Amino acid sequence: MFINTDFLKNDEIFLKLEETVEGNADKDWLPAYHFAICDKSGTEMGKCDLRIGHNEKVYYGGNIGYCIEKKYRGHHFAGKACMLLFELAGKHKMEYLNITCNPDNHASRKTCEYAGGMLKEIVPVPEDSDMRKNGETEKCIYRFDLGKYLN
After folding, report:
1. Is residue 151 pLDDT above 80, yes or no?
2. What is the CA angle 50-25-91, rounded to 5?
């Protein structure tokens, strides 16, 4: 199910595969890739991941997660990593992805917009979710249509 990811690079960054994780149907976990976001010299600037498929848990948690170390922020590295992950999702025949963030996370909202996402809705986090237990109450759901990435 997992494929070679050596193509995940552009003129500024590349995604270094750190691990793949099989899905777990009992826990509603989808298969996932985990990457380091690196500059051309190999310096790790952050992390990102891609969850393959769709379910309720991923609707609220997103198909893609990312974080950039503080000293590398402000250069759209998260957005550029997302766009590389769109290519990988397309190879898995995914027609769309959702990326979510908290409504007050303005940097993440800007990342979603930079990467071409459309704000679908702002929704309450389900009462029984781990996110709710961690104090998160709402999520912005950004949708990314991947038609141009489908092979």
Report:
1. no
2. 35
- The residue whose two tokens read 């027609």 is 95
pLDDT digits (tens, 9 = 90+) for 38-91: 999 999 999 999 999 999 999 999 999 999 999 999 999 999 999 999 999 999
End-to-end CA distance of the chain: 16
Q: Which residue has the tokens 């952050």?
A: 46
Q: Are 12 and 83 in contact (CB under 8 A)?
A: no
How far is Cα 40 from Cα 60, in angstroms, rounded to an integer? 33
**In the block, which residue shows the tokens 């992805």?**
97
Determine what percent of the chain is predicted with pLDDT higher than 90.
93
Looking at residue 146, its amino acid is L
Q: Coil, strand or helix: which one is 8?
A: coil
Sign of the dihedral defined by the CA atoms of residues 137, 144, 9, 149, in that order: positive
Residue 36 CA to residue 31 CA, distance in Å, equals 17
Q: What is the DSSP letter of 27?
A: G
